[in-house]
Write a structure and sequence with these properties.
Blueprint: E1 4-8, H1 20-28, E2 31-34, H2 37-47, E3 54-57, H3 63-75, E4 79-83, H4 96-104, E5 108-112, H5 117-125, E6 132-137, H6 142-151, E7 158-163, H7 168-179, E8 184-189, E9 197-202, H8 203-210, E10 218-222, H9 235-247, H10 252-263, H11 267-291
Helix pairs in contact: 3-4, 6-7, 7-8, 9-10, 9-11, 10-11
């Protein structure tokens, strides 16, 4: 019989938040795959647990190489426990590749639910929680970051992001530029730790606050765009929105469909605007030549 892959949530700050099942799994697993074996050692010491199974590292740098080895152990009947530094494996952390490989081999995958920075920040933000989407980390380069934000500028669901403290001021400034300075947001810092802080306010004010320097683990929650119903936009603006999506990597057909959905217009109307703009661009040299 094949074994079982167990994804276990670990505390995002306060060790007392560790679920009771985590200690039992750590003590009995045949293999413990950890993002950082030194942090795992500190966690087991804090929980008073002694691991009897083999401990291996499993992080971004060795995921590809280590996955076949863990799958082989699972196929041999082992119970493999996967833990990351904080929170649930696979959520902006190592784990997806191993889960996908295990599923492909029809190996059982289960989880020990635990703390989540995404859900904790969302609950504390004071922003709508009925519908939300998790966007993970934004690109480090300014142009790519702006492009990613423009893709969701009209997203009506609440947005949740992770960010490094030294990039927070640039990220909030970019969000204020794309979403508008008055869009509400919450910066959640050091969740469940001694110096936990939730700073709420409009993006413009939060960007100014972050410019002074912020430390700690950061989760940013941003209010979704207002539902204004079908928008009355001129063809040039429709074309601009399509171009933004194309520059971000979408195919033109997909970009047109997305823009049409955003503004509540038929796809044909957006398509016609793009075609008209393309034809006008082709004719410009000829018009200029005729005027000389």
């Amino acid at each position: 019989m094949t074994g079982t892959l167990v994804l276990a949530g670990t505390p995002i700050g306060d060790v007392a938040d560790a679920p009771p099942r985590l200690a039992a799994e750590l003590a009995t697993a045949d293999v413990v795959a950890a993002e950082d074996t030194r942090r795992l050692r500190r966690l087991t010491q804090a929980l008073g647990v002694h691991t009897t199974g083999r401990v291996v590292s499993y992080f971004e740098g060795n995921e590809t190489a280590r996955t076949p080895e863990l799958v082989e152990a699972l196929e041999g009947g082992a119970r493999v426990l996967l833990v990351t530094d904080a929170g649930m494996p696979s959520v902006s952390d190592p784990g997806y590749r191993l889960v996908a490989a295990a599923v492909e081999k029809d190996i059982k995958v289960t989880a020990v639910p635990g703390p989540s920075a995404v859900l904790t920040a969302l609950a504390l933000s004071g922003l709508p929680v009925d519908r939300f989407c998790f966007e993970g980390f934004l690109p480090r380069k300014a142009g790519e970051r702006l492009g990613r934000l423009r893709e969701v500028a009209d997203e009506r669901r609440t947005l949740v992001y992770f960010e490094a403290p030294h990039r927070l001021d640039d990220t909030l400034a970019a969000m204020a530029e794309v979403f508008g300075e008055e869009r509400r947001a919450a910066v959640c810092r050091e969740l469940t730790k001694t110096y936990e802080e939730v700073k709420r306010g409009p993006l413009g004010a939060l960007a100014a606050w972050a410019a002074e320097g912020v430390r700690g683990e950061i989760t940013v929650v941003v209010e979704g765009a207002a539902d204004t119903g079908p928008q009355e936009l001129d063809p040039a603006e429709l074309v601009r929105r399509v171009q933004v999506r194309e520059e971000a990597g979408e195919r033109r057909k997909e970009a047109i469909a997305a823009v049409a959905a955003e503004v509540g217009l038929p796809k044909r109307e957006v398509f016609d605007a793009v075609v008209a703009a393309k034809n006008a661009a082709r004719q410009e040299p000829e018009v200029g030549k005729g005027l000389t």
